[in-house]
Specification:
Bound molecules: zinc ion
Structural class: alpha+beta
């Protein structure tokens, strides 16, 4: 899914964040589990209990700064890119992917019951930042926060994905992650996101259905993204090649709950699944890719069909 070198685009929704680098000292940081009406959906692999990564310090907010008066002073920069830049630069890749996601969902959201579509914001940051759902860092992975309708992505995260979870990586895998988080925004607009109890885990739980649906929505975008044109009528993205599809499948496999548990030295325990197995994640991604967003109703199928 290479970009057309000759296209150019300015997404409405992507901002590159610099400066700040700290955490807002509020008591709200513990929202990571989805308590108190704040929904924080990690793409899957980096929940605290699976990895043994101690992010308590981060989640508790400004403690490491020793002062409650600390305020992040970051700048959010709007930027635009050419397709040639998107083929070589990660920020521009997200800019271009978001541009096509904006166009795709503006056209398609009504098909899945969204009455009034608007874009999420996408914040590209380095290291750590704050969100309405608490602190963000590459230790927690990319996530969607419904409280500020924003997707938070630290580009370094993808190196971790490759090194720790055996994903092949690659440009389309990165775009798949953005598209998955965008899928959670669609669920937010549908109202599905707040209907699911985020403590409800297990092989056919509401959480697994949410996550597989987000994978399916990502696949649906992949299937149609090459139809999107820039403001001058140039195609923005070429359809994925077989090799690129395999990269994406590899990323989806890497973030399956079973793979995470295995790679973390744990036994596979389906009753703790919150995102679905590797096989399920790939299957729903491809279902969306082949059949579009209307094929993504994971809540309508029986547990043994998931
Ligand atoms: Zn997710």
């Amino acid at each position: 899914m290479a970009f057309n070198d000759n296209s150019s685009f300015d997404s409405r929704s992507v901002r590159r964040r610099s400066g700040g680098g700290g955490f807002r000292p509020s008591g709200r940081g513990a929202a990571i589990g989805g308590g108190g009406g704040l929904l924080l959906l990690i793409i899957g692999f980096l929940s605290v209990q699976y990895l043994g990564v101690d992010v308590t310090q981060l989640l508790n907010g400004g403690a490491s700064y020793g002062s409650n008066s600390y305020q992040p002073a970051y700048q959010d920069e709007d930027f635009s890119c050419t397709g040639a830049e998107a083929n070589s630069n990660q920020d521009c890749r997200f800019e271009g992917a978001a541009y096509t996601l904006e166009q795709y969902w503006a056209k398609s959201a009504a098909q899945v019951g969204v009455e009034s579509y608007h874009d999420p914001k996408t914040i590209l940051y380095n290291g750590s930042t704050s969100s309405a759902c608490g602190a963000a860092s590459n230790a927690v992975g990319p996530f969607y926060c419904s409280a500020d309708e924003s997707i938070y992505i630290d580009g370094n995260f993808f190196e971790i994905l490759k090194q720790r979870y055996g994903a092949q990586g690659g440009p389309l895998a990165e775009m798949y992650v953005l598209a998955h988080e965008w899928g959670h925004h669609i669920q937010h607009l549908q109202g599905v996101l707040r209907q699911v109890d985020h403590r409800d885990v297990g092989p056919d739980s509401g959480m697994v259905r949410l996550e597989l649906q987000a994978d399916c929505y990502a696949g649906a975008w992949m299937g149609e993204a090459s139809q999107v044109e820039d403001a001058s009528g140039n195609r923005v993205l070429y359809p994925p090649t077989e090799a690129e599809l395999l990269q994406t499948v590899s990323a989806a496999q890497a973030v399956g709950d079973d793979n995470i548990q295995q790679q973390s030295g744990m036994s596979v325990e389906p009753e703790t699944f919150s995102h679905g197995s590797s096989e399920q994640r790939v299957r729903w991604l491809m279902r969306g890719y082949e059949n579009g967003a209307t094929s993504c109703d994971t809540f309508a199928v029986a547990g043994n069909q998931l």
